[in-house]
User: Fold this.
Amino acid sequence: MTRKVKLIILLFGFLTAFAAANFVLAADFGVNEVSNGLGGSLTATDPRVLIGRIIQIALSFLGAIAVIIIMYAGFLWTTSAGEEEKITKAKNILKSALIGLVIILSSWGIATFLLTRLSGAINGNGGESFGGDQSGLISSGAGAFGACTIENAYPASGQTDVPRNTSIMITFKEELKLDSVCVNDAGTACTCNKTDCNKINPAAIRLYKTDLGDACSASSCPDQNSNVTDILVTVPSGNKTLVLLPLTPLGSASGNTSYSFKLTGAVKKLDDSSMFQTCNVDYAEWSFTVNNSLDLVPPVIIPAGMFPIPDNEKDVYREITPAKAAVGLITVNAVPQVYSSAAVKTITSSPEGLGATAILNYHGLISKFKIVVVETPANTPNKAQLFSGEDNQTLLGVADFSAANEVTFKDYFTFKTETKPVVGNSWEITISPEKLADTLTVNDTIYTFATSAENNNIKVPEVFNANTQAINIAAKINGLEVEASTAGKIINLTAKVAGTRGNSLTVATTNTNALEIKPLTGGADRRELNSSQGEKDRPMNSVVQVNFNEPINPLTISGSATEVANYVRMVNANASSSPSGTSCAANSDCRSYKCENSVCVGDYLGGKFMVSNNYKTLEFISDKECGVNGCGEKIYCLPANSHLAMEMTAANLRTCSTDVDCAAFNPFKTCSSSPLGYKTCQNSVGKNYPSGNIAGLDGIVDAAVNSLDGDRSTYADGPLDFYDDNYLAAANANKKDKYKWSFYINDQIMLTPPRITAVKPSQGQNGEQVGLADPIEIYFNALMMNSTLRTGSVLINNGTSTFEHKLINLRSSVSGPLGYWVSADNRDTEPLDGEPDLTVVSLSHSPFAESLTFNAQVGSGVKDIYQNCYKPSIGPSCEATAEQPSCCFGSPAGILGADGNCQ
Assistant:
């Protein structure tokens, strides 16, 4: 064997060994698991997982040792200089090392199989394993969060220290088919929220101790099993959220207990398809840990956790110049061009009479071509040369005639003669070139002139008339960014929102001869001198926000203003305002700020209440349309120059008849009379057991059904009187446990979009700098509308078109069950004034896999507290341009993928 052949064999052996060892080292445990040692992968709480990881780490070191031995054998062989003894020694070492590597790889295969089955035993997922949660392994069911169908859940995946009397809350992105999740006492499917239909369907909803596993099969459950099935179901307005309350406390008073929660494919959408049919697997599953105590502390509203913050005096304004809307003109002078395709006009030949046809595939401006047949070698097809007929010299292409006398010039036309072409034949082809349709652009929307008015087309009349054309244009562009009216052939344009912003609205056309455009100018912001009294009055496009210190049951606070008016409402703060049905002269005379035909209509403002931020934030948005934001979406306004209050009602407490009813509620074990007019369970100092009446909630409660603590006394007193957060405690003596605060709204609209100021981890960060389970933090420069800080996307109707606006998403470079969910924190920044200034978003996720790339995305569906959409072209160190309007991976970009994501 020659030295060259030996080197080739050894090189091949090295590469094989490296690949095999790398396969072992890059397995599930990963390099990071090894480097972390006892501070990382060996900290698993489950001993089965700990043993599995020790085995994997040991195999990884053995694989590395095998590679080193192979390298040593190769060194001996290549340096043997032909000495037979050294060669024999190298061969023996290499043989032993390769045998050892085969044994290691076989052991790895067996260990991987056993660990996969171990994953199934721990997580109840049939043996599927995808890299690890806090305990080392994670069910593929976690992929239902974020990218798939679950928006949020409490308790969250991996959450610890959950109280025993917790509710479980899950919010979906699509509406539930109620009879798929609820059954009656007989176990028959029924629609939820009825006194005789409020139990879980055990085939669809599974709650069980993790160490016992799911007692049910894939599609059914035995009548008697170890799963928790005595669970009360309620569904808030909208039918997208499930609130599940175990009627017996979970876990044990003696220690922590791990629970797993699973939603199967039996949970249905309205179309009767599985809620998880588009997910990684046809179910959702996650785990959490219950502690050994009950939550007996009622929820409170975070001090200064509301927006606008309490304000007792209206600002004083002295107006100098009112806001002025920008105006412009479009004058129709000629007929706009509609699209017409290229067409053949004439074909002449030399000699005359050589018939031919041409099928065009040409989109250019040349109107005349010449084809000449030229000589070719014997027994080969004749060739045709194509020239520009404008000068008969510019060669455009050469092609062969087929047996059917046909020749094709790519990007021009296919030409066919009636007789076989011979050398010297020529043809001149005259065409009318393609004409593209003219367009009219208004800001970000492009309108095309056409023979019909479908979609974003502007119709051009068959018999042109400038006045009719002006009417057609105005009808199409009116209502989004501009208001359009006509006067003959002139279209008057007025920016829909007054102010300097209107001056930047783009109006442009591809045919300036047909349409003469005078750009929008003259917009001016309101100029005024003002003096803030107390806190600053807020713009009327504000979203009202209140933040709780813990998750709140959404049943009584989520829905339209009418649906939740008994528990939470937005009203006129003026004590002298009138109720519905009384006479009025102005909107400000009514509790509803709505005076119609001199009569007050309603007792509260119209709008919608929304729960978000892991059920800790409540937001109110008015239903009064007042303009559009920078993405063309409608914005809604509170009454101008108004004084408003939000009123919130605590739930009535659980009643009792005798001490026997309170025996289970130690230390609240005495049944005594209360100021509420009924008996409650009380402790030794007369404080109430905080739980609301589970059988019929009539106020605000937390996830443990504790009634709202409006005065922040740490005890629940029930709905006695309103604690007013605008005043000091002395002025609120004995006012509890309802809650309210008031503020002032001015007559301005805030239209400045929010910006992202920082993202952690930063773009391109990798390696040990990024924790596999650490959340991604996104810092905005403004307070955000929490109900838009969601995953997935929303569809927005913008005039005649519907657009998909992305929200907050997380994607991996490979497909897999990556789950993610969003929470937010409002923060007060320097100078500290007690009022939050900006929002930090946390994008939590199931643990990352090592050596993969993950991309976080924030889209234009995200809005600030004034309903202004985030512009994705603006980010840290990324200022976009007209040619590159998007921000992709920290750099401006001009092209996105078909799904609207960065490529």
